[in-house]
Amino acid sequence: MSDKYIKIVDEIGLKYNYPDNIKHLLYVILPAFVIKYGIRKEHFIVNCLNNIPIVIAGKEDPRIQALYVSYPYVEETVKTKKAIYLNRYNNIPFIQLLDNLIHELNHAINSYQNEVILDNDYFYLRTGLSKVKYSLKDSKIVEKNKSYVLEEIINSKQTEEIINIISNLKSDDERMNNTIYAVKNSINGNYVSPAYFSLKYYCQKLLDNKTFLLTLENLRIDGNIDDIEYWFNGIYGEKGYQTLINTLYELKELQNKKGFLIKSKINKLAIKLIKISDEFNKNCNLKA
């Protein structure tokens, strides 16, 4: 199994001229993604890696360390040009580089199917759970969706799971084992990503709910995100999903602000988010 994935990664690495460091990370990332999403998704995951280049930026940016982008353009129909940018590559801890790469690859894989949705004079471009509305005439942004915050939380949770899978991989290949050993030494048990840490904490009860997490994961990777709101409201009640999205968005907007009133608003929103989680869990048959 190791030889198979190493060969695939070497072929992709040759295509994009990846340095050995990136290839060694992909040696363990690829099988971990297959374990996470299942062997039926193997060809799909490989196809994504083969068609979405990883670009090492020329400048180090500690603020936006990594980024998945999909640029839309119109040629008879709407097409996209995708890439993952590592904006911080040289001066970065090993585990943070791994987190960044997995996080952005996971966005890419979960945005690959049903990425573009046409709607008369507009089109929507999907990134995981979130959609951005564009004008079909000039490809300019018309409206951004607030659900990007939930997308980031789910993506961060999955990044943690994939890194924990890597730490438990077994291989006969020395290069893979060296990377696995480095991961184990870096995480000291179960890995917790620093990305969106407080927001994950506030909705931990939802993230621990198997029905919530697995349903979102399945609909998200297949691109059937328009079904999520109907499904969530069917368990929670009317307007439940939009209330969840709005609450997460408001919390995200307040996070970097200071002051007593801001802290008070954050506390109220956090309590509201916990109540949403409790109500969903109360009405849900399978919780854990």
Question: Please, could you describe this protein's structure?
Answer:
The protein contains twelve helices and seven strands. It is an alpha+beta fold and 288 residues long. It folds into two domains: 2-112 and 158-187, no CATH class; 197-283, no CATH class. It has a four-stranded antiparallel β-sheet with strand order 4-5-6-7. A three-stranded mixed β-sheet has the order 1-3-2. A hairpin with a 2-residue loop joins strand 5 and strand 6. Helix 2 (20-37) crosses helix 5 (148-167). The longest helix is centred in the C-terminal third of the chain and has 24 residues, at 260-283.
Summarize the structure.
The protein has 288 residues and is α+β, with helices and mostly antiparallel strands.
Strand order of the largest sheet: 4-5-6-7
Overall structural domain count: 2
Structural class: alpha+beta
Report low-confidence residues grouped into runs of 5 or more. Answer: none
Main beta-sheet annotation: 4 strands, antiparallel
Provide keyphrases for this structure.
288 residues, alpha+beta, 2 domains, 7 strands, 15% strand, globular
Give the helix/strand layout.
Blueprint: H1 2-16, H2 20-37, H3 42-51, E1 54-56, E2 66-75, E3 77-86, H4 94-109, E4 116-119, E5 122-127, E6 130-135, E7 141-144, H5 148-167, H6 174-187, H7 197-202, H8 204-207, H9 210-222, H10 226-236, H11 240-254, H12 260-283
Parallel strand pairs: 1-3
Antiparallel strand pairs: 2-3, 4-5, 5-6, 6-7
Helix pairs in contact: 1-2, 2-5, 2-6, 4-5, 11-12
